[in-house]
Design goal:
This protein is α/β, with parallel strands linked by helices and 328 residues long. The protein is 35% helix and 21% strand.
């Protein structure tokens, strides 16, 4: 049975080849295991990955002389989005109202002690939102940093009504900077999980906009990040439509949806293949099946800028909404 390894897995595999530090290699292996398609065709490869992970963990534990506590979140959906912010910034409330996840929302700090993932629907795809413990000066588990570093992007939540909003923003920035993580805007280059300094594209969400002091906080945030990070104001308690947030996440992750068409049949648009801007026909073919990638002659495509059924070659860039019929 073919393995049908995805572009996401191939990218993680390339990161693993380039990683030099054992801890970085371990993070890459664990990412490969989390994104590998789960079926009989990958059973042997899954076993090999698990053995490599086990050996590398044992080696690292022998060097450190102790066993570490690790927490992982299995990646799902079109993108993994971590929620980052100070205590009581509204992370749990946002996850609860946008997904089916049950979180603990409380007035006291650090009600979230473990990651809580939930699926945020948008049109015919979903984003995985991951609620994390706060970025905290007193104590921050190492695994929180690991999850942030491996995510596709972040929502940086800031309590817009906080009288100490500048201190709140500076604390998060400084603490993440100490851990070699920088929250950047959508126009900045995306980093890789093993980079010495990891750039995480983000949207800054000014929360609690239903409260009176929040308007001035939103104004300050927009002035502070005028030329960098996008700032979006919302209220988890007062808003009922989060479509704008979903659209912004779609744009931030530079997602394109491509649909596979079987000759002579209608196109199923309910389950798109998730690719990214700049991906080509050959990337799509590899995602569908390795035999298509190896033996692809051409394809017919329907989409913006094409005439219906236009023949395209393997280096053709694809766009959102393209329908592709592969021919070997």
């Amino acid at each position: 049975m073919p393995a049908n390894l995805t572009p996401v897995y191939r990218a993680a595999e390339e990161e693993y080849r380039q990683a030099k530090d054992p801890a970085e290699r371990l993070a890459c292996l664990e990412k490969m295991l989390s994104v590998i398609p789960k079926h009989k065709g990958t059973d042997k490869l899954q076993g090999d990955l698990k053995r490599k992970i086990s050996r590398l963990k044992e080696s690292l534990q022998k060097k450190s002389g102790k066993r570490g506590f690790s927490v992982k979140v299995l990646r799902e959906g079109a993108a993994q989005v971590v929620l980052v912010g100070a205590a009581n910034s509204g992370k749990s409330a946002l996850v609860e109202v946008t997904t089916n996840a049950k979180t603990e929302v409380a007035d006291y700090p650090i009600s979230t002690r473990l990651p809580i993932p939930g699926m945020f629907p948008f049109e015919n795809l979903q984003f995985q939102l991951v609620d994390l413990p706060p970025v905290n000066r007193d104590y921050m588990e190492p695994w929180v940093t690991d999850i942030i570093r491996s995510a596709d992007c972040a929502l940086w939540l800031v309590d817009a009504g906080d009288q100490q909003i500048e201190s709140q923003v500076n604390q998060v920035t400084e603490l993440l900077d100490q851990r070699k993580i920088r929250l950047v805007g959508g126009d900045a280059p995306a980093g890789k999980s093993h980079d010495p300094i990891r750039n995480i594209r983000c949207i800054l969400v000014a929360t609690k906009m239903d409260l009176q002091p929040a308007e001035s906080g939103l104004t300050w945030l927009k002035q502070r990040f005028e030329l960098g990070i996008q700032v979006l104001g919302l209220s988890a308690m007062g808003d009922s439509d989060f479509t704008k947030l979903a659209r912004d996440l779609f744009a931030l992750n530079r997602i394109i949806r491509v649909y596979s068409k079987t000759p002579g049949k209608e196109t199923d648009r309910s389950h798109p293949h998730i690719l990214h801007q700049g991906d080509r026909l050959i990337d799509f073919a590899r995602m569908v099946h390795k035999d298509f990638a190896a033996n692809l002659r051409h394809a017919k495509a329907w989409g913006k800028g094409l005439f219906d059924g236009q023949r395209i070659q393997r280096d053709q860039e694809l766009g959102d909404g393209f329908v592709v019929e592969l021919h070997m």
